[in-house]
TrEMBL record:
Stored InterPro entries: YtfJ_HI0045 (IPR006513)
Name of this chain's protein: YtfJ family protein
Length: 192
């Protein structure tokens, strides 16, 4: 079974060539200064700070990039729930959700901000980024109006990428890739 999953993971790596992103290369550097990463203050409020793709280091990460539309948000709910249900060690793994605020339905910006602020307070181990100018989508050459999932290692090297809905095999594959990276990080830290 393990061999099958490893082969599946290897086959899934072919997905990383879409959109100009290449496996085992760092994600193209991009900075978001209009809104940016949501953080929790000492007073339990949410504030925004500049965000850079260079911050995607130190842990294995699943990066969810979505258009600021309900239809895009719903595309990979099953995949995100599977990652949550896997209860991956937050010392070695983190999700980062980047919402493309420039790709939204007119008049929904305030609602989207409020929703992201609530989720930031509910999920303090996750990271949320609001990209009002669509810089990440452009830098990473992602499709508009869609959902993309990227898996990066602790050095911000792309391990896997797919745009659109993940199927059951994709979900099993990303969990295997993430677990392998967590195992590698655990061994490297000497805490295995």
């Amino acid at each position: 079974m393990r061999l099958i999953l490893l082969l599946l993971g290897a086959l899934l790596l072919f997905n990383v060539s879409a959109g100009g992103l290449l496996a085992k290369q760092a994600l193209p550097k991009v900075e978001v200064s209009n809104k940016g990463q949501l953080t929790i203050t000492a007073k339990n409020d949410v504030k925004y700070q500049d965000w850079s793709s260079t911050m995607l280091t130190g842990k294995a990460r699943l990066v969810l990039h979505i258009a600021s539309k309900k239809s895009a948000n719903d595309i990979n709910l099953e995949a995100m729930q599977a990652v949550t249900d896997a209860k991956l060690d937050p010392h070695y793994f983190q999700t980062t959700t980047i919402v493309n605020g420039s790709d939204s339905v007119w008049g929904t910006a305030k609602f989207i901000r409020k929703l992201l602020e609530e989720r930031t307070l509910q999920e303090p181990d996750a990271r949320f980024v609001l990209d009002n100018r669509g810089r990440v989508r452009k830098a990473w050459d992602l499709q508009t109006g869609d959902s993309a999932i990227l898996i990066v290692d602790a050095n911000n090297q792309l391990l896997w990428h797919k745009e659109g809905k993940l199927d059951v095999l994709d979900i099993e594959g990303i969990l295997e890739i993430i677990r392998a990276e967590i195992t590698r990080l655990t061994k490297a830290s000497g805490t295995s």
